Amino acid sequence: MLRSQPKAVWAVAFASVVAFMGIGLVDPILKPIADNLDASPSQVSLLFTSYMAVMGVAMLITGVVSSRIGPKRTLLLGLVIIIAGAGLAGTSDSVMGIVGWRALWGLGNALFIATALATIVSSAKGSVAQAIILYEAALGVGIAVGPLVGGVLGSVSWRGPFFGVSVLMVVALVVTAFLLPATPPAARATTLADPFRALRHRGLFGVGVTALLYNFGFFTLLAFTPFPLDMGAQQIGLIFFGWGVALAVTSVFVAPRLQRRFGTVPTLLVNLIAMSATLAVMAVGADHKAVLAACVVVAGLWIGINNTLITEAVMKAAPVERGVASAAYSFMRFGGAAVAPWLAGVLGETFSVHVPFWVGAGAVLLAAGALAATRTHLRHLDDEETGIDELTDEARALTVGSDS
């Protein structure tokens, strides 16, 4: 399956690796930024909040832009904006300056990520599940390598990872420009209302709520854990490198096997409960660095499975264009990712380092409840994909017919 993929898929997959490196690159330097710029954890966590908030809202326009100028130009536009946002963040001398440039970075990531997922799914040979595994493999490799590179660069200067992202994105820009063939605009231009219409489908809405709550716990772990760990950039980079490796392995090799044996929804329910339990252990052991470090790596196992299966569920949950489904889902999930880092910092400062992890554990448990409540609308997830594709084609034809 991998060797037979067209060069367009490989170009976007490589750029995706670099894009997802940008998330992990910053994680090891959160504590150094706070120390060097005399900022509190809640202030530094706004680097994640501004990034995720803008990304979530901007997801609503990705389909509008891509359907009008074509996927390739949208990907290139996103990469240029990321290069500018990351580079300018590295030149800032205040936390709020970095927060502002991270917001611009989030806009670029929105244009890139949603378009990359839809491009890989539509261009890859084989099933939707195989295409998503390839996308999640790129995500896993990027997330795994990012903290390691960020730790090395961050040990020299907290500015290093920001400039590192810019350089890597220039490489991704060149690869995408030369290897991805020209892609024409869509036959039907989507509108800002399309993602909201897609959320009328109870299956897609239920998966979106699940992703919102799950990402609340996910980004509590990602953004807040470096503060109670209180280690150097290289040490935190190594811990999150282990987390990224665990995520990459389970997303590519374990998730498909569990899905085939137990089904999508049952596997997700068990993993969400396991993720919630891991965050609860972190809440109890928040004063012990060894407990936190071990739980970060273990959480990568559950996150890899959840990311792959939730992304696949989104692509199959409703009979709408996949780019529209991706935009609607991403808008909801990044809402949880935007709130969690800031709230975790406030809770940690106001109460104790234990409280953010308890709140994260509760959110993920609620995610399991939301998925369980939606399961009757997701019975078709494990059906043959030809049937799902026919439903999608029917929906597209009906939409075009109603617009004409």
TrEMBL record:
Q: Name one GO molecular function term.
A: transmembrane transporter activity
Transmembrane feature ranges = 7-26, 46-67, 74-91, 103-121, 133-156, 162-182, 203-224, 236-255, 262-284, 290-311, 323-343, 355-373
Record-linked Pfam families: MFS_1 (PF07690)
Q: Does the keyword Transmembrane helix apply?
A: yes
Topology in the lipid bilayer is annotated as: Multi-pass membrane protein
State where the protein is found: Cell membrane
CC per GO annotation: plasma membrane
Instruction: Give every Major facilitator superfamily (MFS) profile domain span.
Output: 8-379
Q: What UniProt keywords apply to this chain's record, in alphabetical order?
A: Membrane, Transmembrane, Transmembrane helix
**Listed PROSITE patterns:** MFS (PS50850)
What's the name of the protein?
Answer: Arabinose efflux permease family protein
Q: What species is given as this protein's source?
A: Mycolicibacterium gilvum (strain DSM 45189 / LMG 24558 / Spyr1)
